[in-house]
User: What shape does this take?
Amino acid sequence: MTHPAFHAPIRFLLACLFLLGCKPAETPPGSRDPGAVRVEGTLGSPVLLANGDSTVYAVLRIATLPRPEKQRGRVNVALAIDTSGSMEGEAIVAARRSALQMIDALADGDRLAVVVFDSKAEVLLPSTELDAEVRADVKARIAAMQARGTTEMAGGLSAAVQEVAANLDSNGINRVVLLGDGIPNNASSIESTARRAAQRGVAITTLGLGLDYDEVLMGRVADLSGGRYRYIESADKLAGFFREELHRIDTVYGRQASITLTPGPGVRIDAVVGGETPEPGTAAYVPLGDIARGDSRDIVVRLTVTPRKAGVPIELLDAVLTFDDALEEAGRLQRVVYLGARTTLDEEEVAKAKNPAVDLSAALAEASATTLRALELGKQGQHVRARALLQKGADAALAQVKRTPSAELEKLAANMKSVATDMPEADRPAPASGMQYEFSDDAYIVPVEAPSVVRKRKEVHQSVVDALH
Assistant: This one.
């Protein structure tokens, strides 16, 4: 997501490149690299205080430059569709209609698999190259889909990933599109399936329909695999999101992208904000999936630098973006950014060197990550910790607003306070007079929340996912 406050003047960027040793994108010599994907790095400050630990943020912006449209590579996609009993009615009708529209939009020669899951997972169509005969057959199968049973999402997702991975196209788009509207029977293996999908070059787009699904889980699946997550409030909007995903497939510039972040000597990556935290002293790896035309993503990295003498240069971070070119088939390409700083004993010099735009980007990312973590705790029934985390995060965000005014950060702080207020005041509360209750999967008795509260939570979750991706 692009933050307006981050757009510094061109002269500042040039100064950054000079002072920090930031390198612009590197490309292999002799390649046919179209230069459509770029990455830039900026530090919160190029000057750090000597003789003590320092925390500094780095922002890596991945973006694209317009290029003439090219015929895309082949698509290798699997649809994993929830056909459990909760999909009965308008939802299953919309799922059929959207799946049929996707089939019509795919080209002959593209590969399609269809997996449905209710009380069990079933491969409705193994991965098959599309032609007129296959289209007619799979359309008839999809038209016959019925809603019944419980939600074996884990098996459905695993089967869909296997169908795509077994027919991986190194020059094409390899994707799973997962549609679900309920809570899985057993979610214990779902995140590991998403991680394995990323390792095999398969991104998972997750579409959460309605108010009863687990948005935290669906968001995690997309994030871990390098895919995208979307909250779809009503079934009538489902077809639009399928069309959006198809358009994105048609405009991919870079496939199977990832970024590796390697800290310099005496530097520790404390967090890739909103992502997986690496082991101390190790590099961080971030799967990005596909990079499409118009994409812009900021990766915010929080670094700790051990004490140094004054006046010495510090090698902070190497960032290497790697992806398969999808425009000219130039193969596996890289973009490399190096970030460095220096030390001083002059506190005033350190203060003057700070970049308010990076501070704001970091504050937005930290607040978004805090919100995600609190929502995850809330799903686990840890409401007390979640409320405290949200309140602390809101206070930190508002303190930053005083330093660098931002309507976006102020709204995020307000959302954090609103979500905290709507959460129960105790962990897994006992029934109280006048409240409705139901049994959850793990046998705890929990309150049935008002639809407006659930809707607000899902909207806030989507907003912070967007902010981090």
In short: Confidence is low (pLDDT under 50) at residues 1-28, 430-446. The domain at 75-250 is CATH 3.40.50.410 (Rossmann fold). The CA atoms of residues 37 and 64 lie 5 Å apart.
